[in-house]
Specification:
Blueprint: H1 3-32, E1 46-49, E2 59-63, E3 71-80, E4 85-90, E5 96-97, E6 109-110, E7 121-122, E8 125-128, E9 138-148, H2 156-174, E10 185-188, H3 198-202, E11 210-211, E12 222-230, E13 239-240, E14 248-249, H4 257-271, E15 283-289, H5 299-310, E16 312-318, H6 324-332, E17 336-340, E18 356-361, H7 372-377, E19 385-390, E20 397-398, H8 415-423, H9 436-442, E21 445-446, H10 450-462, E22 480-489, E23 492-500, E24 516-524, E25 531-535, E26 539-543, E27 552-560, E28 563-564, E29 571-572
Parallel strand pairs: 2-5, 4-8, 9-10, 9-12, 10-11, 15-16, 15-17, 17-18, 18-19
Antiparallel strand pairs: 1-9, 2-3, 3-4, 3-12, 6-7, 13-14, 20-21, 22-23, 23-26, 24-25, 24-27, 27-28, 27-29
Length: about 575
């Protein structure tokens, strides 16, 4: 064998050996493919898996009475972009806890905090587990996914009221108040692009949020979620937009100043905003300016008058060329915030205690009919003053009939309807969202009557706040050691009842003696004649038609600032 033949022989042996090794590696991969998924797409954490890896099926745990307040947790919930449907695969270990009998009336839950809006409904399609084999590919997203809709992510009011604050509240509940410990990845299922305020949503997750478009895999594929949470709390919403009745504050809203302050503190910390030292020599003010419509046409004159007559140093702030971080930082340290009714005024939630919000309304727009920001700053405990100033002079308004309809144009309407709107002096109550008279009037520009405006602001600054407190709901414990005895006198029977205050009262430093009251119930045994007294002492001698040979039952409970504690155990007298 010559040198050339030797090299050829060694090469053939080497190729055979490599082929053998490659075959063993491939066989080992095939053997373990059911145990170790192949990571084919590092972006967003998707990994490709086999159907047999999800052989337990989907499970769901829901709580809540209706789609409006129901939230659900899922294990192995899947989504198919071809049919644009979520899928529940019924397998041998599937669980379905808390699902209503008819989850299509109208939906299982809402994807947004805006209730009962038909574009926000969530539901799923049922399939047997074996149907999973029919899909081309299956991608699994490991970890916790928080799936919801941004209601209107291009509008700052909606971003804060409908999305960020409910998201903060929901994540606080899931993570026992510590959002920083949350490892949930946010998934926006609304179909919108990232848009301008996307960076604000990123502050609520350590992972990059996903868009609905990220779920679009090629062919008839599945994207499954190891753990998914669906449903935003609406406990923090305070305003409804008029889909079913004219807009106004939410009845029996549960929002508190404490929640808003925790939210704003969290956001400022995430944005790196520190509290600025303020000059005490004069008041600071911010006027939120606009570039295209709803203009204040005598803006400069107004600013000069505020400085001259009220000694308020006013700076202009245009959100078009100011970052949200800078806007929040400046608003957080201002004394007076002024702006025409619009979404930017949602930033009034960052105002310091004692500050004044002045909301300007164009001609024919009644402030009492549009109150999202008044409702916000009036939440007990925020302690922010509010003033609505309305242009009452028709000649001080400038409108644009030929604008696009969505920006208040009315040229597309009949001449009769145009004349009716032009002659009107107040927009009638209406539903959301495209009432032409409302749009025409709200997009007007305004010449502010400086004398009227300065007088109203001066009065508001001089008025004291009501001093409402965001009092936490601290309830007294059970009243201790209730003792009752009969006092016998000639023809008179009295009941002497004494007790000790609840044991937790001594720890309530903010509670003064005058805030503590006691309610005493006395009932003659086996007779339906219970009598009640409200007292501010821990003992009392009761007089009445008590009988010496009768038995009486006595209960006592404590009341602190209208927070009613439990009744004591019954005492027999």
């Amino acid at each position: 064998m010559n040198h050339y033949e030797l090299l050829m022989t060694l090469g053939i042996i080497a190729l055979a050996y490599l082929s053998y090794i490659n075959k063993n590696v491939n066989d080992k991969i095939k053997e373990n493919c059911l145990l170790r998924p192949l990571n084919i797409n590092n972006y967003s954490g998707f990994i490709q898996v086999e159907a047999s890896q999800l052989d337990s099926g989907t499970s769901a745990w829901c709580r809540g009475e209706s789609n409006v307040d129901r939230t659900c947790k899922f294990h192995y919930l899947c989504y198919n972009s071809l049919n644009d449907d979520f899928i529940f695969f019924h397998g041998p270990r599937s669980m379905a806890s808390g699902l209503p009998q008819d989850r299509f009336s109208p939906a299982l839950t809402d994807l947004s905090s805006v209730p009962n809006h038909n574009t926000q409904y969530f539901n799923f399609v049922d399939l047997p587990l074996e149907a999973m084999e029919s899909f081309d590919q299956i991608f699994l997203l490991h970890g916790n996914s928080f799936i919801f809709n941004r209601f209107n992510p291009s509008n700052l009011m909606h971003v804060f009221h409908d999305d960020l604050l409910p998201l903060f509240h929901t994540l606080s509940e899931i993570n026992y108040g510590d959002i920083n410990s949350s490892d949930s990845r946010l998934l926006f299922f609304d179909g919108h692009a990232k848009l301008d305020h996307f960076h604000l949503y990123k502050l609520f997750s350590s992972q990059i949020p996903l868009l609905k478009s990220d779920l679009n895999k090629s062919g008839n594929s599945l994207v499954c979620f190891e753990r998914a949470f669906i449903g935003l709390s609406n406990a923090t919403t305070w305003y409804q937009y008029g889909f079913q009745e004219p807009q106004g504050s939410v009845r029996n809203s549960k929002i508190t100043a404490r929640t808003i302050l925790l939210f704003t503190d969290y956001l400022k910390a995430k944005l790196g905003i520190e509290k600025e030292e303020q000059s005490q020599s004069r008041l600071n003010g911010i006027l939120i300016g606009r570039r295209t419509n709803r203009l204040i046409l005598n803006e400069e004159h107004l600013v000069m008058a505020l400085a001259r007559d009220l000694h308020i140093s006013v700076q202009l702030l245009h959100l078009e060329d100011t970052s949200i971080k800078e806007a929040i930082q400046r608003i957080s340290s201002t004394d007076v915030l002024i702006g025409v009714h619009g979404s930017a005024l949602i930033l009034s939630m960052f105002l310091q205690k004692g500050a004044l919000l002045v909301e300007i309304f164009p001609f024919a727009v009644n402030p009492e009919h549009y109150t999202p920001y008044k409702t916000l700053v009036s939440i007990p405990g925020l302690n922010v003053k509010y003033l609505a100033w309305r242009n009452m002079e028709r000649e001080n308004t400038v409108f644009n009939k030929s604008a696009l309809a969505e920006f208040g144009g009315i040229d597309h309407l009949s001449a009769e309807e145009q004349n009716r709107i032009l002659d009107s002096s107040e927009v009638p109550l209406h539903l959301c969202c495209n009432d032409p008279e409302w749009l025409f009037r709200i997009y007007q520009d305004t010449v502010v009557d400086v004398h009227s405006f300065i007088s109203a602001v001066r009065k508001s600054i001089s008025e004291d706040l009501a001093g409402e407190r965001d009092t936490p709901q601290i309830y007294p414990a059970k009243v201790n050691k209730v003792v009752c005895r009969k006092l016998m006198a000639v023809d008179v029977v009295k009941l002497e009842v004494n007790w000790q205050q609840p044991w937790n009262v001594k720890y309530l430093k903010a509670v003064i003696k005058e805030d503590i009251k006691y309610e005493v119930w006395i009932q003659q045994a086996f007779v339906d004649n219970t009598k009640a007294w409200i007292l501010n002492t821990t003992g009392y001698i009761f007089e009445g038609e008590f009988l010496a040979d009768s038995t009486y039952f006595v209960w006592v409970r404590c009341i602190i600032n209208n927070q009613i504690g439990p009744f004591s155990d019954v005492t027999i007298c």
